Amino acid sequence: MGNLLSCFSQTAAEKKKKAIKPSLSNRFSNPTGLGSSNRWNKVRSSNKDRFEESLIQEQAALAALLLQQHHQQQQQQNGGTGGSLAFDRSASLRYPASGGKKQALPRSSSSRARSLTDPLLQPQQLVNQDLKINDLETNHFVLVHGGGFGAWCWYKTIALLEDGGFTVHAIDLTGSGIHSFDTNKITSLSQYVKPLTEFLQKLEEGQKVILVGHDFGGTCISYAMEEFPSKIAKAVFVSAAMLTSGQSTLDTFSQQAVQNDLMRQAQLFLYANGNDHPPTAIDLDKSLLRDLLFNHSPAKDVALASVSMRPIPFSPVLEKLSLSDKNYGSVRRFYIETSEDNAIPLPLQQSMINSNPPEQVFHLKGCDHSPFFSKPQALHKLLVEISKIPLTPAR
């Protein structure tokens, strides 16, 4: 979402150039002029790849069978007293520890080594044993995605929080996730956040939630804080837009002293009303998603995002917020910084924090723009910690 203004300042000619799609003849032409011999080589290469893949699968199956037989023999030698191998839900093969030594924490199924800042722990290990969910001001989290994302992006966070005893709802904003509305037809911020405001409106009297907003979701939860302050116990901004009254998301992100070239390259403006009218939405170049949003995230999550992300409505990005001390200012705010964020760089995050100081700031090391993918355990731990922060005497 960062640096929208720098992209929007392009000339009309450049806009039209981006809007032009390649002709059918270009799509289906054969610029390489490869002959039949090259095609035959490709077929042979494809057959060879399939054969090698089949061979690898057979070897993996054989290895798993040998491992099971070896374990059964150990059980028989120990008189049947040895415990069985725990069922592992991941697709990777886990080997038993040798020499009776304690096994190290397992790695995730991706090839990326898990850092010490995000160890693979069980939910009960992330929550203090003396924590009593019912003693909290609220145990209900409402997760609000960023621009282009959907409720789907929180799947790891949802699982961790629910396993810890929390109630969790992830919202699909209008035209996002599985919400069927056309993004190009969204004309206001209130229309975009309607699923969130409707959810809050239906809460029973006296019931409160902890709102968590990511990216453009920070603007959305700020809007909700102004509308429903009595229903929000705390607001958590995760690498998110945290605006002051009278600012728009575009105003905030355009304040960066150093232009974000990667963001400018990734953004593609959509003109559903024609090139002579303002943009209706912003799409992101799928080939640049990893570098922009997921530079420390597992490949499987990048793949999920590449087929799930939708365009970002443009009108809500332009809209200026009206925030009052009485409403918005009465909700306790917390900010979670992401240290290696290429979409909303750390200096911009800190600029928003300095302009509109929250109650407390947390920091995720080695984290990209999407901590729910790259640092799910560490993010979960911080959310639980924030839920435990008691009311101040002055409140």
Overall description:
The structure is a single chain. This protein has 17 helices and nine strands. The chain is α/β, with parallel strands linked by helices and 395 residues long. The strands form two sheets. Strands 2-1-3-4-8-9 form a six-stranded parallel β-sheet, sandwiched between helices. Helix 6 crosses helix 17. The N terminus is likely disordered.
The total strand number stands at 9
- What is the residue-mean pLDDT, rounded to a whole number? 77
- Rg measurement, Å: 25 Å
Strand order of the largest sheet: 2-1-3-4-8-9
Helix content: 25-40%
Biggest beta sheet attributes: 6 strands, parallel
How would you classify the helix and strand content by structural class? Answer: alpha/beta
Tell me the series of helices and strands, N- to C-terminal. HHHHHEHEHHEHEHHEEHHEHEHEHH
Number of helical regions: 17
* CA(first)-CA(last) distance: 34 Å
- Work out the strand percent: 5-15%
Looking at the structure, what is the overall shape? globular
Uncertain runs? 3-7, 9-45, 59-68, 70-116, 123-129
